[in-house]
């Protein structure tokens, strides 16, 4: 049988043990809170159950360095576009990529190469990029990061969890990457670089889509933004969300800590611990 998420366990346990004052074990001894798997004082416990019953939680995941490592497929596809479309060979040194949106990255590249970073050139660049990306993905020894598939599988079975993306990828690029690694089907919707070149603006798009899909307003306190860079932390803070940094990308735990996320994880390998710690 599939193991249930933390919330399902809490609620199942509460229903089994209520009413509290009369709870007894099989031998008729009074049940003590200390025996409980979730040793939470009664008033807080009840209010937690009440709030969980009424609120869905929106989890907004970054892609590169958080869910997958494409082993440089995306960067190589960018280089390929420069070669094929602009006749330029460039190693993209000096271009900030991690945590940036695709459109923001293209603006940087065009600026570096003294090409007008207008809408036409940006669109032409990104159009070619999503054409070349599917050829690069299988050439690279990329991988799904530790625990990610099991974590998403577990969370997608929880009715109070809404899984969505908040990524700097354009939507077609995100779909190509996540389909290649078998993760696309876990996500209901997303906010992408197509929406805005500034990552800090993307949270509002994700929130609007969540409301349209689920018919409820997701308050800041019910949103988690999960990513591997300081830019993910910043864009989560921009909407007042809880920020969860994971040190599986190009930033160390110490580097991420300097940006004061609410949580830092080494990775998602210990799926059960992650779910319980974060209250998912
Ligand atoms: Mg990332």
Quick take:
This protein has 280 residues and is α/β, with parallel strands linked by helices. Helix content is 44%, strand content 11%. It has a 6-stranded parallel β-sheet with strand order 5-4-1-6-7-8, sandwiched between helices. Strands 2-3 form a two-stranded antiparallel sheet.
Give the secondary structure arrangement, pairings included.
Layout: H1 6-17, H2 42-54, E1 57-61, E2 68-69, H3 73-86, H4 102-112, H5 119-136, E3 143-144, H6 148-156, E4 161-166, H7 171-180, E5 190-191, H8 202-214, E6 223-227, H9 230-238, E7 242-246, H10 253-257, E8 263-265, H11 271-278
Parallel strand pairs: 1-4, 1-6, 4-5, 6-7, 7-8
Antiparallel strand pairs: 2-3
Helix pairs in contact: 3-5, 4-5, 5-7
The chain binds magnesium ion.
How does this structure look, described?
Helix content is 44%, strand content 11%. The chain starts with 5 loop residues before the first helix and ends with a helix. The protein has 2 domains: 53-70 and 144-278, Rossmann fold; 73-139. It is an alpha/beta fold and 280 residues long. Strands 5-4-1-6-7-8 form a 6-stranded parallel beta sheet, with helices on both faces. Strands 2-3 form a two-stranded antiparallel ribbon. The chain binds magnesium ion. The site of magnesium ion (MG) has 10 residues, from loops.
Average pLDDT works out at 84
Number of helices: 11
- Chemical compounds bound to the protein: magnesium ion
Tell me the distance between the termini: 19 Å
CATH fourth-tier homologous superfamily of the largest domain: HAD superfamily/HAD-like
Outline the low-pLDDT stretches.
Answer: 10-53
Percent range of helical residues = 40-55%
